[in-house]
Amino acid sequence: MISLLRRTKLLTLTLTSNPRTLRPFLRFLSSSSKFPEYEMPSVTWGVVLGRKERLVSRVIISDYLKTLGIIPDELEQVELPSTVEVMRERVEFLQKLGVTIDHLNEYPLMLGCSVRKNMIPVLGYLEKIGIPRSKLGEFVVNYPQVLHASVVVELAPVVKFLRGLDVDKQDIGYVLMKYPELLGFKLEGTMSTSVAYLVSIGVSPRDIGPMVTQYPYFLGMRVGTVIKPIVDYLVSLGLPKKVLARMFEKRAYVLGYDLEECIKPNVDCLVSFGIRREALASVIAQFPQILGLPLKAKLSSQQYFFNLKLKIDPDGFARVIERMPQIVSLNQNVIMKPVEFLLGRGIPAVDVAKMVVKCPQLVALRVELMKNGYYFFKSEMGRQVKELVEFPEYFTYSLESRIKPRYQRLQSKGVRSSLDWFLNCSDQRFEERLQADYIEMETIGPSFCMGGKLQLPGNEVVSDEEDESDDEELYRRTVSL
């Protein structure tokens, strides 16, 4: 305070003692009284417009935007540049990116962002993390709020979080292109919670990264209202949580199916078409996509087709779906090719129908492979076609890696057996049978699961433990998703 008084006295003494220095000071005082808005000192560098000038400038800029077809109504509360030249620079910069006038009208707040302070730093960072320069305009159109973000405070932490989930560095741009809203999420909110819950039900932490790459939208789903209700409902159908965990790891998009509008109606639809409730868990585990299909239309079409062309009644069709649910999406022309091949070998239509019901995978096989297997069966093995009717699964085995080697071993031993006996077992058990070290009753036919992959009683996929629980068996089947 004392130094300020001294400076004031010194300035007064200087001005009064030197008339030449007094004149410019007096002129400034007289001129400033005409523009009271300039009387207060400013903390801003450069030219500062007064209130009247700002209003005039805003009107001029609004008129300019209107000439371009941009409606400036939403910009009333936004700080705009002081000159039309600066606004023109912003508009032209965005247009070079691919942002159109229509896009600007959908989100005019983009025009409140400085080219040098906002746009260039943000777009430069996005390109650095893997978004191609040619896609930057598309990214801005899909998520224009990114232009308001701080690279250091908001964008970089999200990218760091994704890397912490084991999302590969080269996949970051791809993930953000699919779901750019991730850049606006708080790390300690929905994203962390959804990841923690999925890990708690058995999802492997190392699989979270691939899940994010495949379907990043689950990071924005609330656990209590979206993810947990889906899990609880599927568990109520007989799917253990560890099976669901494996299913989510491979097909994270299942979490995007709406529970009330999609999942429950499709489950009810399966039941209405004769699928047994105890088989629902197996059907879903084999083909999780069935929960998100327009199922009623597909089932109706396929059921009619199976009845008309294959002479399989609705009950037989239901058994087919239980064993191979992927058939609901299989093209009917594809289905007919193996069927026509079998009919062409002189097998009656009624027997072909029985073969398809017992082994639905037949209708998805390549005819060329079926031909090779059939001719070996007839020419080398010299067996009757009725054996194929009894064991249609023969066509699902590899001719070179299983059928031929095992048949040759049988020949060398002078052993004759059924197709089921020497094909429907693991390599180890087959050797035990040949050495007569293992005796067993005739087994029932094989079961198919997990996307049509043949699962055979006693093979390497199934444990030798006889007291194995149903949950463990279903878990193993799901591993091959």
Low-confidence stretches: 1-49, 442-481
Structural class: mainly alpha
Tell me the span between the first and last alpha carbons: 80 Å
Mean pLDDT: 84
Q: Strand sequence of the main sheet, in spatial order?
A: 1-2
Q: How many helical elements?
A: 25
The number of E-state strands comes to: 2
* Rg (C-alpha, Å): 37 Å
Which overall shape is indicated by the principal axes computed on the Cα atoms? elongated
- Beta-strand percentage range: under 5%
Order of helices and strands: HHHHHHHHHHHHHHHHHHHHHHHHEEH
Mind summarizing the main beta sheet?
2 strands, antiparallel
Q: Kindly state the percentage of residues in helix.
A: 55-70%
Task: Describe this protein's structure.
The chain starts with a helix and ends with a helix. It has a domain of 56 residues. It is mainly alpha-helical and 481 residues long. Helices cover 59% and strands 1% of the residues. The chain has 25 helices and two strands. Helix 1 packs across helix 2 and helix 13 packs parallel to helix 25. It is elongated. Its main location: plastid.
Summed up, what is this model?
With 481 residues, this protein is mainly alpha-helical. The chain contains 25 helices and 2 strands.
Which key phrases capture this entry?
chloroplast; MTERF_sf; 2 strands; mainly alpha; two-stranded antiparallel sheet; elongated
SSE diagram, text form:
Elements: H1 2-17, H2 19-32, H3 51-67, H4 84-97, H5 101-106, H6 115-128, H7 136-142, H8 151-164, H9 172-178, H10 187-200, H11 205-214, H12 223-236, H13 241-250, H14 259-272, H15 280-286, H16 295-309, H17 314-323, H18 332-344, H19 349-358, H20 367-380, H21 385-390, H22 399-413, H23 419-423, H24 427-434, E1 447-449, E2 453-455, H25 470-479
